[in-house]
Protein 1
Amino acid sequence: MEVTIEKNSAQVVINLSGRLDTTNSEAFDKKIADFIDTPPADMVVDCRELTYISSSGLRVFLSLQKSANKAQKKLTFRNINAEIKEILDMTGFSQILSILK
Amino acid sequence: MKQFFSSLTNQLVFFIITMAVVVFAAAFSLFFLSERDAVVTKAYKLAESSLLYSYEFVEGNLSEIEHETAAIKQWLSADFNNDKEIVDALSRMMVLDKLIVGMSVAYDSLPKMIYVSRDSANHLSVKLLNDKKSYNYFEMDWYKTPMESGKNVWSEPYFDTGAGNDLMATYSDVLFDEKGSKIGVVTADVTLATFSRLLERDMPYLSAESMIISKNGLLIAHNDLSKLGQAVGDLNVRNKIMFSMQVSATDWRMLTLTDKEEVLADFHKMSIMQAIIFLLGIAAIVVFLRLIIKHITRPVVKTEEELKIATKIQMSMLPKVFPPFPSRNDVDIFAYIKPAKAVGGDLYTFLIKDNKLYFLIGDVSGKGVPAALFMAITKSTFDSLVNYFSDPADILRAMNDLLTEHDSFDMFVTLFVATLDLQTGEMRYCNAGHNPPVILSGGNKRAFMSVKPNIPAGVMKDYPYETEKLQLDNHTTLLLYTDGLTEAENSRKELFGNQRLLDTLANASVDEQPNRLIKRVEDAVQRYVQDAEQNDDIALLAVNYSFPHELRLPNKMSIISNLNSFLETIGEELNLSPALTMKLNLALEEVVVNIIRYAYESETKEEQIVIRLTHTESQLVFTIEDSGIAFDPTAITPVDISLPVEDRPIGGLGIHLIQQIMDEVSYNRIGNTNQLQLKKIIHNS
């Protein structure tokens, strides 16, 4: 699991690659803790390189979405592959996350 | 050949004809030998009678000549010393006896010999000899031999070049004076051609030769004149019938030789005819015998054919397709059955139901048709009972109930009934008087299973059969067999025995394919019994079991990556799509995370989680076992996915994912373990 964060005045782009599972979801959570606590701007989560996600990863997505909503900032998920999309569908996440097709 | 003897008619015909041929051949040989002796004896008689005629003539003539010289001697001794008188006497004698071609008187004291001879024109002429110069008779055999021995002799035959080139013999009679001293000899030269001509007549066979042989073995007379004077040793006497008689006047022998072949020719012809008639007779008997026996044995043959059909039906009741579960990698089975008679009482069967292997081996008491029928009842009873019972003792008790219902059967069956949970390797079994199976597992363990013997089914109603349990190790083979194996006898009536069975399996690997294992046992028994007759059915059933795909994990979150590679391996092996592999990975991760979090509560104490996979072509079954506190993930209320994001709780996602991905999720608390089973239907391309 690799996380890179690009920040500019307009938005924050979080690039995810590899597997987001129980072993690293906590680390991921910590890495983006600042954005969860106080979302600075609009955020984009780019999942182009994301191959796997478990419920713990989804939970981090959910926290992020919740705080973005609270702070009235825009959060979009993009480049989600079919397998991950299926999991989001299963869990109803595709309805509560704004996913860029 | 085996094919030929499998027919009862052929068997009977073969044995009857063999008997007939032996008896007839013995009679024929006896007849042949005695008849041949009779023919030969007859040939001797014939030779004797034809020779006797010639014999009397020869004997008569020769003794006449001896008498004649004796008469001359008498005249000479009666002061008959005038030469002229001697010549007259000799001449008279020669006129009387035409056989004599020359006579002489020869003296010893001085060279004096009076010789009267007959020429071919029957004229007599006289020769007087007074000196040794012209003819030294002292050195001649006809003179020397009788003078030295003092005995009258017949000379060996010789060719006289003087008188007509005839074969001659000379009789020499010794002259004595009053004092008994030898003073000379009287001789008579006899032509022998007459005898040969005589022998020419009355030959008993075409190939016959008649002859007179001198003391020294020269031919004096022969029906073939060209052979005269030859030595008898030149004659071919091989394969000839020889008849001979001594001519009493001389040392001569008369002899008849006849080709045995000619004598026996007619007899041989007749014997060949007889042999042909004999063979034709046998052939005719074979044909008639076949017809008659076929007719007589028709009911027996029918029964035999029906038995063959019965064998087929009976064998078709037993599973015969191997390997029976080609898509499974956790269990493989092979079976072998060899009835001693057409139909047998041994049985085996197996089936998989709810991922449990049910298997059985049994041996019905007795043999033949009754045993076969009882076996069929036993087998079908088992087949229907597995639909209602899953516990071996329950099955066995129900079978026992049915089999004891009819006391009149008076039959029973030894059974070993077992189930094997393919997911966990737990074997449950119940024995009814059957031989304990052999278990082969790691560490060269080759042993008879510890089994409570109990009593055979069908003996006692309500016998309390109870299930026993054994946890099989990974890679275990069970060999079930009937006592036809351990009690197979060699020609010395010694049993194959338990030890030999264990020895046979000692070299077998635990994971040896069941068909190879059975072949190994089969070969060992075959080598042991050799050609000895099999007197009991033999049934063998080998079950090879290995755990399904298994992963053992410690209760640490960090091991999630192990789970990942475990599933990658399975996905590749079972040719699953990457998307499916990922989803299975996700479901299992959720399960394992739940166990670590809730069942074990803390990661500090080392615990274990076991994941096993069994599969068929259409489904995957994962079993996840842990020994933590009772924790039923299915009892967790799944998240309501319709809630808006603000109302979404953080938990409850895991179980929701599991249930979404899997087709069936079930939880069991067994003893101190939580057992969660996940089923996934797959559609393999």
Protein 2
Amino acid sequence: MTPLARTAAGLALATSVVLQLSVVNDLRLPLGPPQLVLVTVAAIALLEGPMAGSVTGFSAGLLTDLLSAHPVGQTALVMTAVGYLLGLAYTETDRGLAVPMLAVAAGSAAALLAGAVVAALVGDNGYTAASALKGTLAAVIYDVLLILVVLPPIRGLLRWMAPERRP
Amino acid sequence: MGRDSRRLRLVVALLLLTSFTFLTLDSRSGHGTFGGARRIVGDIFGPIAHAVHGITAPVGRAFSAAIHSGRDKNKIRDLEKQITILNQNIASDTENQKARDSLRNLRYFESRSNSTITWAQVITHGASAVQDYQQTVVIDAGSMDGIRKDMYVVDATSGTGGLVGQIVEVSRSTSIVRLLIDKGFTVTVQSEDEGLTKPATITGQGPNVPLRLVVSDSQYAIKVGQRFGTKAVPSTDGFLPVPAAIPVGTVTRVTTQIGDNGATADVQPFFTPGALDYVGIVLTQGRDVPRIALPPTPSPQPASTSPSSPASASATPSAVGQSSHVVTPTSPAAPPPTTPSAPRTSAPPSRPPSSPATHSPSPSVHKSASPSKVPSSAPRSSARSSPPASSSPKP
């Protein structure tokens, strides 16, 4: 990633965190909230590869952790892994939306379930198996739709900020 | 290619290791390791979230109202626009009205519980941008407003002043509140009526699950409809003392009347988690605290009779989205919601005998002791409520 593309990714990430907290969490959709930050990380990973995916995932997780009340590292750990794994789908996502949608569905499920497990290991027992499954189901359903909205502007942003790079 | 993939693996391993180290450090130290970093990030993102909330809260309300009003888009597109504009005006008016009501609720609770309270607005529901299963809200008051970690937070949206939670993280202008319904949140309580001498606690069980009351006295009979409030626990080891007399909840179901570890019951809190808007933070509490400072009616303040009664009456019809939820928690607390026309007459029977007595002497004693905090909340209300009002006539 060029420095400009990194700046673009950082901007997208910060925006997604603010929007998730102030807007998305307030929508009170059935089952649970969509995971805008996760989808943003997924979009960057799918567009830029596993290196960018893991670094973006780590940054997003760390930022989330520092803003929240749970231990720092809890989200960063999960998001690094998910960003890396989603980045592995990079080469096949030149065109079309089927691969990003499938990848995001798998990534959301993995992130939410792994997040619940890590939270349990840390001793933050603020959930039940039912609420974890409900949250995962919500994330998978909403995130698959959300990637359709998030992917094009992030692709545009990355191309605009770093036009010399050819995907 | 081989070199690239080796570098990639190294970076990913490093990042995972760093996360794991952070996690171990922070959970071992009880969230102390990253206090400085948390404050810095909170200082940067808090004001941004606050500003975004200021834009999205009224617009979002108007937006949802517009969606519900206009199904047939082709026919009533023009009407839709007008409705959106009108709803924006209504939303900002409602905002002002709610701010006024909540301020009055807090003042009343302040005098009832003999405590100093500053008020704040909820800016985000949930502090984590990625699902973390904790029940939290972020409020727009921080260390600049005198907020400290572990302070208790009460509801100002409804008139009950019920316990909402406790401050867990503080930055300059925002703080994170852990809600009462968060799993594992425990508070020592006492019953509204006397007779319960053994210790009792109420513990959060997670979202959409009633709170659990545990009374260690197996001889004590819990009754449905019984109300519990916080019991003062003296400060030990530098922790903040638990303020007394904050209403916590009403018993909805007795689960174990006589068990090995005592009696247990389901308890409904006095606030609606999704409808939280304005809250109060208990800064200090004076002496001579009543048992539980429960409100007699949904419309308090008997002092200012004529201006306050139409104001509180109009608060109920203004229940566009959230206020309808706000009304519900008061219904188990007091019978008056069924007869809103004459609320004040039904007040005395539902009250504990101790609270009217302390109501009159407490404000004079305690407000002279710390006068600086109380007026500070008054300018905040006018400062916050005026921007939506001034912007509303423009469109």
Protein 3
Amino acid sequence: MKVLLTCTVNGEERIVLADTRDTLLELLRDRLALTGTKEGCSNGNCGTCTVLVDGQPVCACLMLAQEAPGCDIVTIEGLAGSAALHPIQQALVEHGGTQCGFCTPGIVLSAKALLDRNPQPTEDDIRHAIAGNLCRCTGYGKIVEAIAAAAATVRGS
Amino acid sequence: MPPVENHARPASDLKVVGKRLPRVDAKERVTGEAIYPADFSLPGMVHARMLRSPHAHARISRIDTSRAEALKGVLAVVTAADFPELPIGTMVPMGETGYDMWMVAQLNMARHKVHWVGQPVAAVAAVDPHVAAEALALIEVDYAPLPAVLDIASAMAPDAPVLHEHVVTKGIEPRPRSASNVCSRTVIARGDAARALEQAPATASISVQVDTAHQGYLEPQVCVAQVDANGFATVWASTQGQFTAELMTARMLGLPLSQVKIVPLEVGGAFGGKIAIHGEAVAVRLAQKCRRPVKLLLTREEVLQGGSGPPAAALIDIAVAAGKDGGLTAITGTYRMDAGGLPGLSPSLVMQASAALYQCPNLDLQGFDIVTNKPRTEAYRGPGGIQAAFAMEQAMDALCQRLGMDPLEFRKRNASVTGSLMPIGTPFPSIGLTAILDEVARHPCWTDPLPRRRHPTGRGLALGYWRGTSMTSAAHITIAGDGRPMITMGPVDISGVRTTMAQVVAEEFGLPLADVYIHTGDSKSVGYSDGAAGSRVARTTTAALVEASRDALGQLRARAAEKLQCPPDQLDYADGSFRARQPGGAAISLPELMQATLTDGAVVGRGVSTKLPLGVEIGAHVCDVEVDTDTGLVTVLRYTAFQDVGLALNPAAVEGQIEGSVVQGLGWALMEGFDYGPDGRLRNASLLDYRMPTALDVPKIDCVIVETPVPNVPYGVRGVGEVPIVPPAAAVANAIARATGARIARMPMTPERVLKALKADI
């Protein structure tokens, strides 16, 4: 069955025709063509589909599209301005914190949720914040370094 | 074309190669703009799903798709009947032995029989994924279940049910008369190992069992297929090799190669699991049938439950012997590798790898490739290396304990060196094992006192070797109208090679990295290249690009000579400009030259590497662990990987490869293992139950890069990405043994297994 949903994605009001069975992930990727959010397991286990819902990191595969109305949803496409990268993105580029890149959008959003509430995270805080985001390429070290560097940049600005 | 000679330039002369530079493709990754096949859509595109076998071993007696075809929204259904039946032994090139197309076809669509749970038996294309999933339930398949063999020991039993009537054990004389689950036997021997073992004053032995694991790439297998009005098929794929995928897809469909094009998009991790096709030909057949583009995206459960090829389980026995002086006198080994439901690779490379780093007069290694009713295995980063090292490096460590000898001193005493004999009897080319061991000896990870914690701690050392391969890589460089080199390379980028290869071309042209554009061509726009596997791409593509750069610069030199009215050999080239050699000579930059000659035709430099000398990989790993004696939990406290990389094209990229590879190794060492039920069904087919390391499970991995260039290879580059996964399980096991006295013989070394071993030891 199809339903018409109104929701706020990246600050913009969107009216979407969705299937009642759609998850938020399907709404974003298949209905709104916001393919920066990746699908790794559809089961809430890998964190690749992490988006921010009212500022909190959420696995978009675990939320139904019908729960989206009334929520403020931020995806990787909504993070940076049109020109510059967000400091977290910039730091991942500079520190070699992305390899295949499939986990990267989810890591960026988990890191943003962390820095928004804790601008001075310890290494342990960072590792906890991304513990729900699997990365199979980097071994995490360079991601952790990058987020620490981004925190310093955010504090300095 | 001048031959590509050795670039033994001092590192200080290099301006771009060897520098720690960000990836050229990092921005599209951090912004989510990079396009993986799942992100790619076409107008009118429909969605496919596969029906998979619920049985580990069964004959298919009937498939009725009529009810599925009648469902509203279903556009096409295919089964094996929609593909030509390929004879056994039709090979396509790839890797050491190539792939048998009969086998590739079975991987993608079972015919007559199913050999594992999850093997595809039918596929559906429908207007949306929900309808496709509904349609699967309407396909009727009658199976006649057969007894299944689910592990190596039962597959080798004399009365075991046989999976394949045509498989007769290779490597046994006289040739056996009856079919067997043992596909091949491989022997590597010299001297008299049995006698040496018997006479040695010190011996050690171990028998290990390694569970199947998974490469764990985060992007499931996915492709989009389109067939145009003339029947030309295009597949946008997540693949390690567009040419291998093209060959396999075309052969499985019975299409000429000129009618199939594979476009490699971004790959969300592969590690060996995306060499063979897993659905590409099926998607094309569906697209042909319904005349619409088709997207086939596997679920995570499908990936784990038989829809992809995991690496091999193994049973390995090793015995080693040494004289009182610590000199090795014998190595014997039996390697039984579980290929899953179809014949696998010869264990030869694994056997060689595990014994390669020791000089030993007596060797007796026997390997067996065995089929069982589990998913057909595929490569995983140095395939077989970690399993064999888990056995060999523990045996060596146990031998050190018997001898009362320091494990590093023991390795130094027995280390292979340049010119010493490899297990197959040929001398080693230039290797840097001794240099690595010297680095270990003076590094704090080895000299610092062991940390004291609440529970026992231990320090483990293990070595790793991987031979890698070379095969074919092609590339061409077109000079843009603004004078910039535009690289089209054949190999797919799964390890950051777009960055390192752009660095090579920037170095050759004397230009900044930002002036070079690079991409991988599709299978119709660049020369044949083998897949990205066997640590071969950076080395061979470097050679191809050095050749292509010189070809392009030669063509540019001829144009510059004409423009500057100067003989070509009187021109100097540096930093993007040609200059006449006399004092005050005129100069022309590449942008000026191309603007002035834009209508004279294209400048295209071509290069190919086909038989580059091997760049063998060697590493030594040191780790400290704490073993919780109450729970069996092993915590890795510190981990340092030493590796000879020849020359690090980009140290940040090299570290990235080493760190990621080590963490994959630690995952298999401690937590990753497939848990099959008695029915052959995987009981942990999700990323919750098949647990891979998170950021909380592993420490920062320290890397120490050693550089011993490979002779006659441009820039002296070695393979990098595979060998770091080889030593971790053994390094951890040796650390556990040093901490607790217990040898763990089963991998992964889960808390339960460690606790059991600790209790057995008391």
Protein 4
Amino acid sequence: MKVTVWGCRGTLASPGPETVGFGGQTSCVALDLSDGSLLILDAGTGIRPLGMALGTDHPRRIDILITHLHADHIEGLRFFDPMWDPSVELNVWGPPSPIRGLRSRIAPFFAPPFFPVHLRNIPSKPDFRDTPTTTWRIGSADITAELIKHPGPTVGYRIEENGHALAYLPDHEPALGSDLSSVEPEWISGLALAEGADVLLHDAQYTRAEYDERIGWGHSSTEDVVTFTRRAGASRLVLFHHDPLHSDEQLEGVLARADELKASGRRIEIELAREGLTFEL
Amino acid sequence: MAPAHPQRNLILILARDLASRLATPVFVVDHEGTLVYFNEAAEPVLGRTYAESGELRAGEWATEWSPTDDDGRPVPLEDLPLGVAFREGRASHRALRIVGGDHVARAIEVTAIPLLIAEDEIVGAISVFWERGAER
């Protein structure tokens, strides 16, 4: 599969000269599968330029896997060009809620006063589906979703194709209430999704000092994400969901800290997510 | 490929995280009724540590502490508060007597709460208990 990052900023789109290096668009990652299928992870503002790049040459079926319904993960959906194309079969997958279905939870974003067009009038007639509790197949990939620690119903994803695995946990605080270095692996939120993954895209929003002021907000410190990656045995960590207040220069500092931390353990390749980053699995 | 260490249900992870930080004795069971955790506060009441006990299936923990009513009649699993929480999907409370792992008999009260993620889907249950006469 070919992986392309279209947005990796957390919380709030943050364009400007200080963030131009890594980008200010909120979460969106495109996966082009070997059979031609297109999977999209999250629908932050990064999905708008993705839709524009697809033009009219997009696959007839598109599957969008939403991790959760915080605005920075769905705010771009309304501006994704294929939404407005009646010939598209658009499937939007998202976390199950014990109370209401995905469609009814997303519908307010497609209704006044937040938006002029009602969801029922969107030309592509998107189909909203709760993520299954067991692994399912889309195109040539096997998808697994698991509820993970973040405020409100939130899932992480594992996508496997041709023996390679990508794990995507953009908003995740596994250290909340848990000592990641010592707790048994089955009791660590999200660890099974990331276990042995070739690439892990993981929340790394805060420095240690910032995290200590924001415990319970649903995000991870540099230290915790490196420990999590080590416990999972993932080969490559892509630091994701950058804080909107972090400049490019500050993000380089985050990477330097992560590199210091990895030096003491098994070899992990670590890099910062940035708009336009692509790699093949 | 199935993971080597499948994740426990997130609700159980959160329940254990919460219990591990409480000074109130708490007992956590999974969707099959298997005891998967009790906290440090529960150890003096149960007369043993969780490290000693480890996971116990429902049929095992239900007899491990020899629960009886106040008249000494054994209370079967289905009538224990956790059994009621599972069977009926509702909170349940009752007074019991148990014999701890330290062979000390204790009178306790237990409240069990089912962990329902949908009307018909239970992922486990927790019980909170305390020794009678030790109330604050």
